[in-house]
Amino acid sequence: MSTDIDDPGDEEPTLPVNISLSLGESGDMWVARDEDTGVTSQGQTREAALENLDEAVVGYHGAGESPSDEELRAMGIDPKQNTSGSLDESDVFQ
């Protein structure tokens, strides 16, 4: 959970430390925000929102795993066409 830090001796923890937690505008989702990075996540319960925030912040710091070809296909992405490049060259981010 977000209040647990892997190693208190680390200079830069990978999990959020300064968190805001609030009920969303619709009243049915909790919103958790890491105030240091600006990463925000949500969940149907406070605990779920905090767990989702932990995962999002770890991804923000680059400590995630690349999706498998099967996962890409399930998202409608052809793995052979999935290449990384500059956002300036992307048709999606114009």
Automatic annotation (TrEMBL):
InterPro entries named among the record's database cross-references: DUF7387
Pfam family, one: DUF7387
Highest taxon above the source species: Archaea
Region of interest: Disordered: 60-94
Name of the protein: Type II toxin-antitoxin system HicB family antitoxin
